[in-house]
Amino acid sequence: MEGNTRNTQSPKPLASTSTRRSWTRRKFLGATAGTLAAAGVAARAQSAAKPGRILGANDRIRMGIIGSGGMGRYHVVSMLDNFKDVEFIAICDVSEAARNEAAKLAADRGSTNCKLFNEHEKLLEMKEIDGVVIGSPDHWHARHLIDTVNAGKDAYCEKPMSWSIEQGLEMIKAVRATDRIVQIGMQRRSTPPVMEAKKIIDSGFLGEVSLVRAQWYWHMQETLDPAAVKVNGKVDWDRFQAPVPPEKRRPFDPVRYARWRYFWDYSGGNMTDQGTHLMDVIQWFFNDSKPPLAAQEAGEVYQLKGYETPDTFCAIFEYPKFMATWTLTYTNNWTNGWSIIVHGSKGSLELDDFGARFLDNNHWIPDWRTKAPPPKHEIKGGLRVDLHEKNFFDCMRSRKEPNAPVEIGHQAVTALHLANAAHHARRRVTLDPQTYKVS
Hints:
- The chain is an alpha/beta fold.
- The chain has a domain at 190-385: 2-Layer Sandwich (Dihydrodipicolinate Reductase, domain 2).
- It is built from 14 helices and 15 strands.
- Helix 7 runs antiparallel to helix 14 (406-425).
- The longest helix has 20 residues, at 406-425.
- The two termini are 33 Å apart.
C-alpha cells in the first residue's frame, strides 16, 4: 500500500471512481474490442509523458515501489536477490511500518539509500527512477499506474490490474498514450511449464474443448478473526480511502485497512484476486485472451464473518466454444492449492503448482478410481515470479512488449468483474464484446 504521514490534501479521485452506478447500468469508455486488440500489437503512440531514461546494457535499473505491503515487499526481496543490476531508491506507502520494513529489506540487500514517502506523487517526481512496482490495493491501481506512466516511468503493476472494467479501459488508454513499458503481475505468462503446456494445446492434442474447471482450495493458516486485527504504527487512512466516493468513506477501521481484500470498496475479493491468474490462463489457452460473453455466480460469506466478499463461490463463464467454471473456498480442510482441469474430445489436462499432465483417450484405465492413469506428456515445475520480473527488466532495456501488457491484464480481470456483477445482480449478466457494457 501507499505511504504514511498525514496528507492534508487528498488526491482527486479518478472520474471512473467518483460516480459509481449500479453494476448492470455502467457507462463505459468509448473503446471497442478492435481498438484494444490494435493497441496491443501496433506501434506505441508518440509519448505524451515525460521522457524516461534510455537504459544501456550495463546501466543499473533504479526502482521505486508504491505500496510496500506483503506482495510489494516480496518484489523488493525477489528483485534485489535475483537481479544484481537492479536497485531500489524510493519506497512509498500509507503505512509507516510497511515503509520501514521494506526499507530494511532493501538495505539488507544493498539498497541503503531509499527515500521514504507517504504520497506517491512525491516519489514520481524523482527523475532518477526508471521503473516502479505498484503493489497497492486494487482501488488505487488505476491512479497509481496512470500517474506512473505520465511521469515517464515504466511499471510492474500487480494483479488484478483494475478495480472495475471502466478503470481497465481508462488504464489502457493512458498507457497507450505514452511509450512506457507496463507488465501486469500475472506470472503464469512467464512460467515455463505453463508456456510449454500452451504449445501442446496448440498442437491439437486435446481436440475440441467443451469444459474447463479452475479451482482454488486454500486451508488458511492465519486467523481472519476481525477481533484479532492489530495495526502497527501510523497509517494515513484519509489517503488510503481517497479513491472511494466521499459519501462512502468511513472513520478509521483497522479491519477494513488490514483486511482490505475482503471489502468491496477496495477490492473485487478473491474472485478477482486469485481468479485473474487462472482465468487468464484459460482465455490465453482457448479464447485468444478474450473475456467471456456471459457469467453467472453463486457465493457467500460462510465462515469469515464480518467481511463482505465471499469466502466460497462458484462462477460459470460462457465462451463462444466452451464453458468454464471457477470455484474457490479459503476455509477448507482437504486440499491446498490451485488447479486448472481441461476436458477435451481427444485428451485432458491438469495444470497446477507442480506442472502439467496431459492424458489422451487411450490412457483411460478401468480402475481409474483407485489408480491415476499415466500421462502422455508431463511437464514438471512450479511458478516463476522471478522470470516474470526478468521479462519486465529485459523489456525495459529493449522496449519490446512484455509478456503481460495492459490489454492482457484488462481482458483477464474483465471476466472476474463480470462474475462479480452477476453476484451483485443475483442473475446471469452479459458482456458486449465491442463496448464492454455489462447488461
